[in-house]
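Researcher: Structure prediction, please.
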Amino acid sequence: MKRRNLLAAVGAASLSGLAPAVQAQAYPTKPITVIVPFAAGGPTDALARVLCQKMSEILGSQLVVENIGGAGGTIGVNKVAKANNDGYTLLFTHMGTLAVNIALYKSLPYDSLKDLEPIGMGGTNPMVLVTKKALPAKNFAEFQDYVNANQKTVQYGMAGIGSASHLGGLMLNSMMKVEVLEIPYKGTGPALNDLVSGQFDYMVDQAVNVLAQINSGNIKALGVSSLKSLPQLPNVPTIDSSGLKGYEVSIWNAFFGPKGMSKENIARINDALVKTLSDAAIVKRLTELAVDLPSKEEATPAALATQLKASIDKWVPAVKSAGVKPE
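Model: Predicted structure follows.
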């Protein structure tokens, strides 16, 4: 073989061998749509925007948050489940849409375990038991005694069927073995306003939603729903340590892609997520929002798949036994 032909052959072979690597590194080459299946302004949306801004810098391509609310988040989730799996349509959602909704709706247009690819955990929102200022209880033990003694008149509020505050209250009441009147609202804002004005007695909601009112003295915090205390509320013990052993409700949020999304693209997004979660400015911002950040090991696709299955096993029986139906 002539020298010129030999060099050409070697060059072609080299380029051919590099092609897969070059192609893998090319993603993403255009903006990525990240669907949040709720209205803008809520905790999941706020977390998504903080994470996506930094991840965009790392990936060199914009992650654009798109809010598609309705039907308890099922509309937005279904859009991702049915989307092209090229990695340019992702989902950022909380556990309710993928675990709790299985029990709430007779038939979902998607299968949480079969139609989505886990990418990585973005953070967990702990919750707080808060009461109206006038409630006589000063701690969780007194609160439990008060609710037990006044079940016919006590009322708890929540931001709608299937909301985070509904799940927190549902589990609390179930474990306390009490039956009280529940008042569903259309969103956390209206519910919290009425709690401040004393229209009902208590609610369990995500810390980020209630911290300002707690710090202003407009409502009382009697316990946190996670198994460890919150730095933002150092004097408020966990409900688990206050007498209701085993009570733990935290709302995790995570990235998913459509089924069949390539392992390479999943790894690329997960890598950007892990780097974002270790960024000092991001850690500071999310700590201010009372978000519990996952470790590197907890942020893997495999860990998220395990967490999803565990959440389904926990919440589907609980919601079904309570006879809860969507609004």
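Model: DSSP finds eleven helices and nine strands in the chain.
Researcher: Thanks, that helps.
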